[in-house]
Amino acid sequence: MRQLLRYSMLWMAFCVMGPVLAQDTVPTRQDWSFSGLTGEYDKAQLRRGLQVYEEKCRACHSMKYLTFRTLTKPGGPELTTEEAKSLASGYVFPIIQDDGQPGERDGTLNDHFISPYLNEQEARYLNNGALPVDLSYIVRARAYDRGFPQFLLDAFIPYSEQGADYLFALLTGYLPDDPEMKANRYYPGGVINMPKPLADGEIEWQAQAHAAQTEEQYARDVTAFLVWAADPERQTREHLGIYVMGYLTVILALLWMLRRMKRRPQN
Fold first, then answer.
1. Are strands 63-67 and 112-113 parallel, antiparallel or unpaired?
2. Contact, 226 vs 199, CB < 8 A?
3. Is 60 annotated to bind ligand?
4. If we measure between CA atoms, which residue out of 175, 227, 162 comes closest to residue 27?
5. Poorest-confidence range of 15-19, 124-128, 162-166, 234-238?
6. Is 61 assigned to a binding site?
């Protein structure tokens, strides 16, 4: 019995220490403007993130669940209708013409961010057999083990920015001494098929943007944009939730007062 108890304690210690031993590959928790119930998206940051996507990510990755019209809605990059139309017109969509022959047309506001490849086979052929992921919900599909005891706290106070932290860490986690620029300390196995996508000074911000032109800034901005793209209605929903909770609190207080009045002895 004592031996069984000893082995059980050793196993528990191993399970607890496992995440601690891997702390050097665990992404650092970032400070995001949109975190928490009162968080807000930074419109200027989302515009910069969209620019990073257009200049560095669009060539390989699609966002097939995001329409160009969504970019004009409040709470996001808030492009004007003309800006969104101009952006959409830069994408080419295949069509079948009246004579039955294949043709092309420019994008419209109702179109999605199309894949740059004709099909999956072409995508794999041009990327050494790997299929570039769609970025529409990439921050929802990526997470990491925050280790002990943080994962216990997450069970009571959920942390919803794990995907954002991981994506930011991945984009900035390439090892500088790798000649192929594919070694990444945060990717499982240490090597990712995607070469290092960002570098200092590669993107010149538009006239209205005032931010550092560094790899870290590019990664932070495009990550924020992809967080918004995965759930454009998040901010509206959170604000509505606060109003609903306030309303329910008032109703609960009124019901409690009514109950007290009914229990008051009548003279």
1. antiparallel
2. no
3. yes
4. 162
5. 15-19
6. yes
Q: What's residue 179's pLDDT?
A: 86
Contact criterion met (CB below 8 Å) for 242 and 234: no
| Eight-class DSSP state of 98 | T
The predicted pLDDT at position 207 comes to 66
Q: How is residue 54 annotated by DSSP?
A: I
In single-letter form, the type of residue at position 2 comes to R
Query: Tens of pLDDT along 134-152?
Result: 999 999 988 777 777 776 7
Residue tagged 């968080």 (tokens): 39
15 is in an annotated binding site: no
Closest CA to 117 of 166, 59, 156, 170: 59
Closest listed residue to residue 238, CA positions, set 77, 38, 31: 38
Cβ-contact 134, 62 below 8 angstroms: yes
Q: Are 26 and 146 in contact (CB under 8 A)?
A: yes
* Structural element, H or E, at residue 170: helix 162-172
46: number of Cβ within 10 Å: 25
Short-list 37, 29, 22, CA closest to 245: 37
Q: How far apart are CA 117 and CA 124, in angstroms?
A: 9
- CA-CA distance, 114 to 110, in Å (whole number)? 12
Of 211, 15, 230, nearest to 136 by C-alpha is 230
Structural domains of the chain ordered from first start: 43-255 (1.10.760.10)
